[in-house]
Amino acid sequence: MAKKSEAVLEGFMEGPLNFPPTYKFDVGTHTYDTSAKKRKPAWTDRILWRLRRTGSPVPSHNSALQWGLTSWLGGATRVSQHYYHSHMGFTISDHKPVSALFSLHFPFKVNLPLVTLEVEKEWTKFSDATAKLTVVHGFQRSSWDWVGLYKVGFKHHKDYAAYVWAKSEHSTQVMFPEEDLPRDPGEYILGYYSNNTNSIVGVTEPFQVHAALTQLHSDSYQISDVSSEDDSTLVLLAPISRSPSMCASVCVCVCV
């Protein structure tokens, strides 16, 4: 009813409801509500989906590849739902869970990374925290692109341990500031995030960030007391949030 009468679900799709209502059950049973309210059974638990076109319009002089990249979740992308059903055997809730299986068919395939990043295999000193960039011909960079440092196993492009802007279209190297380096040693990778395509378009092989580097980083964050005749103390406050955004970051220095 909401899909037909309200724009809030415009564009969303749903497979046929070929299973019994999933709500409301007496907990621990397969019996619909026997309380005084006697709620009517309802298909409360649902899975809907839609395709969202990403990216911004591309000038006509760019290649067909660029157009495909900026519309990679639209156009000829197809979604197939293979099943959609409830799991009526569960009784730990007054709902029955539902699940669905989908497959996606994309209109094109990129065999080579759009941005190649070269990085040291091991980071043992601050000068190692650099990456050289090589961009394929015809790929349009944005002033809002950035290179993220990710712990191996990350799930989302915002799961970075640190990032650095790659603002200039002609820049071929980025360097992570000393204060932004991670405090945890381990395996990391670098990923180039493209604002135009809303995705990571190039990653490195895993490399090791050594404990010696992270220890130096941790030591640099220690608060140091400077004694003087007037007993003044200079406290450096690290930024609380360094998330990529179009808002300026502010670093505060407080004198007491």
Automatic annotation (TrEMBL):
Gene3D superfamilies listed in its UniProt record: 2.60.40.2840, Endonuclease/exonuclease/phosphatase
InterPro entries: Endo/exonu/phosph_ase_sf (IPR036691), IP5 (IPR046985), IPPc (IPR000300), SKICH (IPR041611)
Record-level Gene Ontology MF annotations: phosphatidylinositol-3,4,5-trisphosphate 5-phosphatase activity; phosphatidylinositol-4,5-bisphosphate 5-phosphatase activity
TM segment ranges: none
Residue span(s) of domain Inositol polyphosphate-related phosphatase: 2-100
Family: Belongs to the inositol 1,4,5-trisphosphate 5-phosphatase type II family.
Designated name of the protein: Inositol polyphosphate-5-phosphatase Ja
Lineage: Eukaryota, Metazoa, Chordata, Craniata, Vertebrata
